[in-house]
Design a protein that fits this description.
Helix content: 25-40%
CATH topology of the largest domain: Inosine-uridine Nucleoside N-ribohydrolase, Chain A
Number of domains: 2
Strand content: 5-15%
CATH architecture of the largest domain: Alpha-Beta Complex
CATH class of the largest domain: Alpha Beta
Shape: globular
Number of helices: 15
Radius of gyration: 27 Å
Strand order of the largest sheet: 3-2-1-4-5-6-12-9
Distance between the termini: 24 Å
Length: 496
């Protein structure tokens, strides 16, 4: 699952980021981007905190931006007494430049598909409400939303009836539930307060992290949070709300829920931020919420222990884990390393058409050469229509001639490609007579594919005077109708 995390770090947000970065390292999920909202501290400071945690967890390249600086209608209230002056307890994130293009990050993620996209909000719902109003068409495409907030039939932690996130921006919370395109998974206090971290458990977490950089700072980050809970009568421990919300959202723990309708009081001084669930259907409205009522807390801590182990392995330079990362699909680096090299074609023009069918299965070649990065951008080439031009983009689903497919192990060993002939169906007549056959003859004789500049050329049909069509791609051979040694066809392209 691809994840947008909208957060306000925040001690418990730190634990959520630790798990998400581990899941990204391991290829279980992909942290698409992180955005911040004003809550525990202001949005910019939250972004600085998130950037530091991402760096300590080995993923400083995750796109990050600060969001809306203030609630929709009420003044901003922060919690220095709970999370410390800068939001990370006794630790302080280093200064850095912060971007503010958070809406663009969300739009980009949504436009690349929402079936596998999960938006998780662990702070006030300000950004989500602003986005719903400003970009209703994109908001309507969201299919998976999880929110940490509210106190449903449960005492509040800010007022007798209101939870902090909903109280900070009650109008945003109310708008989100009124406008949501899909029932929101709501992780409220009645569930998240059971996710208790004790000093003994924290000691075990730090030990399990081993040499991971985050281990050095986790005690300082958390100790302030322990002291706050002790001061308010909860004992010397801490409720790690946001970590549990993330684990529930991504189905890392079993949980129970009820489908219901939620509304939030925004304007009353007495009940500001109070969340109300119509559990009996009295309002006769369409359900807008999957209210989580129970979760396996032991399993949640086991899931976090797994994340700590991943971070320890990363710090130790675990080769197997590094190889696992290379098997992930949708790499941020275009896959330009391949078994077959290329030389220049002298200005052969190609007809502008679209790919007619989906690409085949791609995998590692016989040389076991890995792609440099975590995502593999692959060009879809099939049918009888030519594909024009290099498609040098980072994602395999950016409204271009690219296929959103998985990278998997090849089932068979790669064979050298044999090309019986080549035809360039080109608009540039004066350059048609290029010495392509000589190049092909040379390379085929050496047991490799033909070499052409920036991309690869494939042919359907006969020789230079035949009636075949050209296939050109910046990054990959087409899977269809190639002839290997002994005239055998192949549908699997080996891609490093």
């Amino acid at each position: 699952m691809r994840v947008i995390l909208d957060c306000d770090p925040g001690v418990d947000d730190t634990f959520a980021l630790m798990w998400l970065t581990a899941a990204t390292h391991a290829g279980a999920h992909e942290l698409e981007c992180v955005t911040t909202t004003a809550g525990n501290v202001d949005a910019d400071q939250c972004a600085k905190n998130a950037a530091w945690i991402l760096s300590l967890c080995g993923l400083p390249i995750i796109p990050l931006a600060a969001g809306t600086p203030a609630p929709l209608e009420v003044d901003l209230t922060t919690t220095p007494e709970t999370h410390g002056e800068t939001g990370l307890g006794y630790a302080t994130a280093p200064e850095r430049h912060i971007e503010h293009d958070w809406e663009a990050l969300w739009i980009d993620a949504i436009e690349r598909g929402t079936d596998d996209l999960h938006l998780i909000v662990t702070g006030p719902a300000t950004n989500l409400a602003v986005f719903a109003h400003a970009h209703p068409e994109h908001f309507a495409r969201l299919k998976h939303i999880t929110v940490m907030g509210g106190a449903v039939n449960y005492p509040g932690n800010t007022t007798p009836s209101a939870e902090w996130n909903f109280w900070v921006d009650p109008h945003a919370a109310a708008d989100v539930f009124a406008m949501t395109p899909t029932p929101i998974t709501l992780c409220s206090l009645g569930v998240t307060e059971h996710m208790l971290l004790t000093p003994e458990r924290l000691e075990g977490v730090v030990a399990k992290l081993g040499g991971a950089p985050i281990a050095e700072h986790l005690e300082a980050i958390t100790r302030f949070y322990f002291e706050f809970h002790d001061d308010v009568g909860e004992g010397y421990q801490a409720q790690i709300h946001d970590l549990l919300a993330v684990l529930i959202a991504l189905e890392a723990v079993e949980n129970e829920h009820r489908v219901t309708t939620i509304d939030v009081e925004a304007d009353s001084d007495l009940t500001r931020g109070t969340s109300v669930a119509d559990l009996r259907g009295i309002w006769e409205r369409e359900p807008n919420c999957r209210l989580v009522t129970n979760a396996d807390i032991d399993a949640a801590w086991n899931a976090f222990a797994w994340a700590c182990d991943i971070h320890a392995r990363i710090a130790a330079g675990d080769v197997a884990l590094e190889e696992l990362r290379h098997l992930r699909a949708d790499d941020a680096v275009a896959a330009v390393e391949m078994l077959f090299a290329a030389e220049h074609v002298h200005r052969a023009a190609l007809a502008l058409r679209v790919a007619a069918a989906a690409s085949g299965q791609f995998g590692h070649d016989a040389l076991r050469v890995h792609v440099r990065g975590e995502h593999v951008a692959v060009v879809a080439i099939a049918g009888d229509d030519a594909v024009a031009g290099d498609q040098d983009v980072l994602h395999a689903h950016d409204h271009r001639l690219l296929a959103d497919i998985q990278v998997a192990e090849a089932t068979d060993q790669a064979h050298a490609v044999h090309l019986p002939g080549l035809l360039l169906e080109a608009a540039d007549e004066q350059h048609l007579a290029v010495v392509l056959e000589q190049i092909i003859a040379r390379d085929v004789g050496r047991g490799v594919g033909p070499r052409f500049g920036g991309g690869l050329v494939a042919v359907r049909g006969g020789g230079v005077s035949g009636g075949g069509r050209v296939r050109f791609s910046g990054h990959a051979f087409p899977p269809g109708n190639w002839k290997g040694p002994c005239g055998q066809g192949g549908s699997t392209l080996n891609h490093s």
